[in-house]
Design brief:
By secondary structure, this protein is an all-alpha fold. The protein is built from 3 helices and no strands. It is elongated, with a radius of gyration of 24 Å.
């Protein structure tokens, strides 16, 4: 039976990991292929920590930027006017 990883052993394991970065084309399937040149650099056994980063939808980013810019340019609330005299 395999021993469970404790918080301490997990921290030690994660701190000793090496990073390998590559891009992959998502095809709609539930599998993610590792390029052969990357696979040869990986150990044959052990623990791997996998993080998948994807780009946000362009329209969502544009909406966020527009809303944040609008908020930035908005006037202060009347109750915040007292701070204008401290400039």
């Amino acid at each position: 039976m395999r021993a469970a990883l404790t918080h301490r052993s997990l921290a030690i394991t994660l701190s000793a990991m090496n990073a390998v970065e590559f891009t992959a084309e998502l095809s709609g399937s539930s599998t993610l292929s590792i390029p052969p040149e990357i696979a040869t650099r990986l150990p044959s056994k052990g623990i791997a920590r996998v993080i998948v980063l994807t780009a946000e939808a362009p329209s969502m980013e544009a909406e966020w930027r527009a809303a944040s810019y609008e908020q930035f340019l908005a006037d202060d609330a009347p109750e915040d006017a007292i701070y204008d005299s401290l400039r």
